[in-house]
Sequence to fold (373 residues):
Amino acid sequence: MEVESDTWNNTEQPGSYFPNIFMRKDFGDVLLSSLILLILSSCALVLIAWFSGLLYKHLCKTAREFVLSCMRVSFKNRIDKGKVTPLSVPRHVAFIMDGNRRWARKRKLEVTEGHKMGYNALKSLLELCEAFGVKTVSVYAFSIENFKRSAQEVSTLMELAAEKFEEMLFRGDVVQKHDVRVRVLGAVHMLPEKLQVRLARAVSETKHRSTVTLNICFPYTSTEEIGRAKKLYEEYASNCATKPSDIEAASMVDKLLYTREDSRVDLLLRTSGEVRFSDFMTWQCGFAQLQFVEALWPDFGFVEMMKSLYRYNRFVKSGSRLESDLLPLEELPSSCQDYIRKVWEEEDKWFDRMGELYVPSSSLPGGKSVDIP
Fold:
């Protein structure tokens, strides 16, 4: 049977073993139809992958919220039944969030991406701490020593911080959902005014919340904090007729720190395998359990935190936890109480005053920055 000449050209060329389809009269139509089919198939696969990704994220988020909800109910029931004592849970957990840059470089990403993932890790751990009944979470976000880094990196970190404080105000689902009070500890006057205004607004907007306190140490060092508290105490002592006793002096310095009446740190966690304080809350960590873990901060998640809380629980049951013998504010002389409350009030007024300058845009009121008292 002969093949019609207008359909195929079966003339064999040297080295050719198949009909030459390129000689078909309708080859252009076939090619166009194939390309259209290929494009439609690719678009369908992309849409399926995108929808699957959204579904996966939604299922993961739903499962996480369900687990955290069950943990809250279980934890509350165990406390009510006396199976868990308040000492079994750290009241104050402090994190040295180390390893963001190494995490990014390990994956050949920009350093900024590492800091962004570190912020996401903080949000997740804040939810977990709230579920377990932790009252105070302190994080070492930026050291005063970090100003010695390159100007470009410091500028990038300042912009990222401004963006995240903005997110807390308008898209702070974790902060709002869990009734989180945000406080900023450190030499705030060293920051750009644009950032001062944003963080002050976050502090003033959340000051009446009480479920969890998030202390963001930015920029901070213990040396600066203790030096400032000592200076304030000396100002009081120089005008005081009766010299405070040693225990009263130590208790006053304790209340004049940025942490104020927060309980002492019970658990200090540092990621990335580094074993040092880096000048972070050395006064507050006098009786804390210290844990140094190998995971980089963006990788420090649910499982690692559960392990750390389990180790802390064993630490408490062994009787190793000690309490500070410093006096509470109410047991200090009335003149000391009045002075301390005056200092706190001045700090609060500064944050309120700066927070009022906030506008939700990139253009903020100019002028000189106002030094924190």
Q: What stands out?
A: Confidence is low (pLDDT under 50) at residues 5-12, 362-373. The first strand starts at residue 92 and ends at 96. The CA atoms of residues 116 and 160 lie 8 Å apart. Residues 27-80 form the longest helix (54 residues).
